[in-house]
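Lab notebook page, bench 4
Experiment: in silico fold of construct C2
Operator: M.H.
Input chain length: 665 residues
Purpose: comparison with the prior construct
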Amino acid sequence: MSTAMWFDCPSRQGRTEQLPEWVQAVGRSQSPSSLPLLIFAATGDRRLQLETRLRATVGLTATYQTATPLGFIQQEVELFWPWLRLSQAPNQVVFLPSESEQVLASQVWQGWLNDESLLWPGTVAAASVRRCLDLLLLAGLAGVAIPEIPQRLQAVLPASLPPAIVPALQTWVDWCLAQGLLSYGLAALLYSQDLWPLATYRDRLSQRFSGCYGDDVDEYPALLLPVFQRFQAAGWPWGCTFNPLGRCREGQGADPEAWQAWASAIGGESPAQRSGSVGLSCWQPALQASLETADGLDTAPVWFESPFSSLQTVSRGQLLRQVAETIAQAVENGVIQPQEIAIVGPGIDAIARYTLIQILEKRGIAVRPLAEQRRLPSSALVRSLLTLLAFLQPGLGLHLRREAVAEMLTTLSDGAIDAVRAGLMADVLYLPQREQPQLLAVTAAPRWDRFGDEAIRAYESILDWLHQAQTEPSALGQLEAAAQQFLPRDRLSLADTAHLRRLLEVADHHWQLQAVLGTAPEAAIAGRFYSLVMDGTFAADPFPESQWQPPIAAVTLATLYQYRMLQAQHRWQFWLDIGSPLWERDQPAYYGYAAFLRHPPHPFDPVEAAQTRLLRCLADLLARAGDRIILCHSDLAVSGQEQAGPLLALLNQVPQEALAGKAGC
């Protein structure tokens, strides 16, 4: 087998299965002491899945190191930071997540925001800051220097730009370097402009790895292309898989056209593809023809012998209930299992998510929402820990309410103090003060014996812990001690564990960051942390995947982007809200992303780009469906307005009898 491979094939054609076979073949030809192979996966979840396949297929045949594109870039910049840092910069860097990055950038750019020289037309300050930081990331991933950004944008999107965008971005970069702070955008910029041009670094890279492989490079930025080109030019093992129906991250820094152009230029060997279509791919020409026919709404024939059916109602609430009822009946009748069903849509709002989960779980059917992010203050556990912190750190009493104190007593006592008793205790035992609020001894309440022995013991336990915690000077230490004392992991659900872990991660990073930025009073640091969390700056997934527990039999609920990134397949797919115009915007895209592609379109036509994305998305969904696709439509959207999205042309061709028709191709 050749050591230079390029596998270009659509969804479910064996791309990811092919890569471990390449690695195994290379491992058999190398000595045990050979350098490891560098293997990329598009996302963290896919990297873990790829590692599982590699362990099962390759075993000890070859040594390798896996990484994601952004993870590799960040790792390399941190590893070679001594070569890049300024003379007065710290020896170690602190990574900036996007939430902290935006907060600090807003402070650094406050002058430009005040005089509106950094405001984009029609946006507020927060949106302008986010857009500038996104452009920095796009420029770094494309290898574009900061002074070239305005020229790039105006060539593709003729529009007025903030006059201070270049000096603002350069000031932000210089400030971060001086402080030893590193974000994904800054890491990409340093790698492209400073690290990769160093011949010494390129030589070191060749001395650390013996080959390079990438799975689904259609999701990779052009910044990684020189890495593969170096191994290819040296004649070392390399291989890439490419999905023409993927390209989900094209608007977030990925540049699939650049990778395809390179593959065409070098002519890498490609293994034979599987014959025949997969899933319901054979219906892709019919769907495309229906969408491209101008009078498709009036004259298109009905597809009676097809795997398509529809659910149509007037209101969206009716539609959600009908979708849930259809699924419940099919599962209860043994027609299908929950894990074989997926509900996908261009946007799963909180109302739809709550309605579907509530109805299905009442029928005994679990639901698995993908990557659902909820603000940390939505968790009673998080709110209770922050309320507890307000009794320990001066200056936080202004934020407290009696209702929050009552909730804290109930949550931290694990229900030993019920809601009624907690409310009574908060009314008579909570002493509000701006600087240092207090909880009084239980005997300070009239008729305190009526609280009950169990509630009294739980209250006194919390009060004793508060007195002991006063000896701990660090608010971070107090938070960690409170979590260990009142919230043992063995009694927390996965959702509570995820929120607690996220809170402690955010707290740890916040104090690290404050240590870098300068000495501030502990109370001020704690107050800033309290405000950031309670303002909803940070979020967590309340339904995390657990690597220690087997996956449960659950219906998958996801947006189009999440579902396609998951790379799953299901027998039944429910396409929710097919009348929504959001189907043409199935994937998130940064402003001006087309300007940073290696081969940018001239001129850029957003309508044509949206239509191309829609057809690619539908083809990908068809390949991941097994037996049925149910189109779900309500005449009125959740806002009460009529829907007129691009997929309405399909409704007249699909029978309304749910689950009717002939499955398959």
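Observations: Residues 494-517 form the longest helix (24 residues). The chain has four domains: 4-76+194-266, 94-179, 281-372+549-653, 377-537.
Next step: discuss at group meeting.
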